[in-house]
Specification:
The complex is a heterodimer of chains A (116) and B (176).
Chain A lengths: L2 H9 L9 H9 L3 H9 L5 H69 L1
Chain B lengths: L1 H8 L3 H23 L2 H17 L7 H22 L8 H6 L11 H10 L3 H11 L5 H8 L3 H27 L1
Classes of the chains: A mainly alpha (116), B mainly alpha (176).
């Protein structure tokens, strides 16, 4: 082998693997109970499931906004209805009052002529 | 080894660990010389053995195991190298700044050569490593990497030309 070849052989000599290399690999191969849970629920971390969760969350947000808007609309309508009822009651009361006042005024007008 | 393979294929952890102890140095060294980063090399080497554990039943013999490990290490290193930032250009200043190991044969050259090898194009790098780390001949390299023999020859020749040129330039600069 030429000079460069022998230099490359020396430079690329095998190195020892880091300490406890085999132990670390075995630890990865024998999951703990947390790891077992992880493997059971691991599918939840897959991309399609993540995107589905984002989509479901977005739908929930839209639905919540819609329900909130509907409730506000209902409250507004009920408020309008109550206001209209109050106005009607006021008008009726006002009409009654006017009628009573008119009767009272007539009685008062008629009263002096009766006393003569 | 054949017995350890058979026992490991049945799921015996001790047998798998025995196989790993025997080959971890080779796999780690392939990854280290390819990636030139001990942390990435350890991660990649661990992944190779994790994958081996899941594929033990497909290993037919001790020689098949060694070829399998080398091939998977190569592919894993390619994936890892694409995730890592590229090595800076190997200039004279960079070579001077590299720490040296006290190597009995070449006090300073080995580290520089390792760096130069790690800076070779990815498709040629493992050819050089298999040739000079594992002492494989060219047909064995072709079989391991599943590439044509002529491709192995051309990549090896080109790599050696590059290494010679860079080492020659460095030696010339040092003499100045």
């Amino acid at each position: 082998m030429n000079d460069l070849g022998s230099k490359l052989q020396a430079a690329l000599r095998r190195k020892e693997a880091p300490a406890d290399f085999a132990g670390k690999v075995m630890a990865r191969l024998q999951p703990s109970s947390a790891g077992r849970l992880d493997s059971v629920f691991g599918f939840l971390r897959t991309r399609p499931v993540r995107w589905a969760a984002v989509g479901a969350l977005a739908c929930l947000v839209v639905i919540a906004i819609y329900i909130h808007d509907r409730r506000e609309e209902k409250a507004r309508v009920e408020g309008e209805l109550a206001r209209a009822q109050a106005m009607t009651a006021l008008r009726i009361a006002s009409a009654e009052l006017n009628s009573t006042l008119a009767k009272a005024a007539k009685i008062q007008r008629d009263a002096p002529s009766q006393e003569r | 080894m054949e017995q350890a393979l058979a026992r490991s294929a049945k799921g015996e952890a001790a047998a798998f660990e025995e196989i790993m102890q025997r080959h971890q140095s080779m796999v780690y060294s392939l990854c280290y010389h390819f990636l030139h980063d001990s942390y990435s090399a350890e991660e990649a080497a661990q992944d190779v053995f994790v994958r081996l554990y899941k594929n033990m039943s497909s290993i037919r013999s001790a020689s098949h195991l060694v070829r399998w490990l080398r091939k998977v290490a190569y592919h894993r290193c390619i994936d890892e190298a694409r995730r890592m930032p590229a090595l800076p250009p190997v200039t004279l200043e960079y070579l001077e700044a590299c720490p040296t190991e006290n190597h009995p044969a070449d006090p300073w050259l080995s580290q520089r050569l390792q760096l130069l090898v790690a800076s070779l194009p990815e498709d040629s790098r493992m050819v050089v490593i298999l040739r000079f780390q594992e002492d494989l001949d060219l047909p064995e390299i072709a079989e391991t990497l599943e590439i044509p023999l002529n491709t192995v020859k051309s990549r090896l020749q080109r790599s050696l030309d590059i290494l010679r040129e860079k080492l020659g330039r460095y030696a010339g600069e040092v003499r100045k």
